[in-house]
Write a structure and sequence with these properties.
alpha+beta; 4-stranded mixed beta sheet; 29% helix; 7-stranded mixed beta sheet; single chain
Length: 283
């Protein structure tokens, strides 16, 4: 499961400081406001910590399906100039009767609005609300999953998946029912077999060994499996000592469920070689 504070590799690594927020640009009206006034609003009660602490340096925007040809892309971004708290009715004077008119919002002003030379595109047309990352990771991203900057353990597993040409989605949002309540969870990795979805969790030692954490993880896995997912969980030790075996097991699980679904055309799938090809990648 997700634990951005965990450094489970057992290696001496300098952890990058997250300074960039990717936010959802809900509709054309919000884009027009952004283009004209160069500010964006976030409800105070749901704002990410980097906004509350004013450590955010850059703000970028993901455009959902309503943007048609520009849908599921990150195109616009800018450096943060100022942050203040305002009532929604003061931000949007024409909407004083809105149900949230009296609520507090962060107004984030940008120095200028810039466009990426090539937009970052989500091949699986992902849903998202906020992603926190580093500006370097954002600048170098070629597709949606490249923007994530998670724990070193997850980064190591991600590199293994990429080297083995296993298409996966990072921090994949899924709604599940646990004890009669609908909860939103984020899978470290989601892989799509032709017949079944596969969730992969990297269980860092400092986050998943407490009794309550183990119980929570089990409930979560059971709920996912009851809704059609296959769930694979890997410990710090398994990933650090034998990553190639973990990746081979992922490939075998994909093959068991009909092969890897194509990201562009879901009706097409391919079986993975789970032997020598994977081994060579880790030589």
């Amino acid at each position: 499961g997700r634990n951005p504070e965990d450094d489970d590799l057992g290696l001496i690594m300098k952890k990058e400081t997250k300074d960039t927020l990717i936010a959802l640009l809900k509709d054309r009206r919000d884009l027009d406001l952004l283009l004209q006034y160069k500010w964006y609003r976030i409800p105070v009660k749901s704002a990410p910590q980097m906004v509350k602490s004013h450590t955010i340096k850059y703000l970028a925007f993901y455009q959902p399906g309503c943007f048609k040809v520009d849908a599921f892309k990150i195109r616009w971004y800018g450096a943060v100039r100022n942050i203040c708290i305002m009532k929604r009715k003061d931000l949007l004077p024409a909407e004083t009767t809105h149900p949230k008119a009296e609520e507090d919002y962060y107004r984030i002003d940008l120095e200028e609005l810039l466009q990426l030379a090539e937009p970052v595109f989500s091949r699986r047309r992902r849903r998202m609300v906020f992603i926190t990352t580093t500006f370097a990771r954002f600048q170098n991203a070629r597709e949606f999953n490249d923007v994530f900057n998670e724990s070193p353990l997850e980064e190591k597993f991600w590199e293994g998946l990429k080297l083995s040409h296993i298409d996966a989605e990072r921090q994949y949002m899924e709604q599940i029912r646990i004890e009669e309540k609908i909860q939103t969870v984020y899978l470290d990795f989601a892989v799509f077999g032709r017949e079944r979805k596969i969730g992969i969790e990297c269980d860092g030692d400092t986050y998943h060994t407490e009794k309550d954490d183990v119980k929570r993880d089990k409930r979560r896995s059971n709920a996912l499996e009851s809704q059609g997912w296959a769930v694979l969980r890997y410990t710090t030790d398994a990933i650090n000592r034998n990553l190639e075996n973990c990746i081979r097991e992922v490939a075998q699980t994909i093959n068991t469920h009909g092969g890897l679904q194509d990201t562009v055309n879901p009706s097409v799938s391919r079986y993975l070689e789970d032997g020598q090809d994977q081994l060579r990648l880790f030589d």
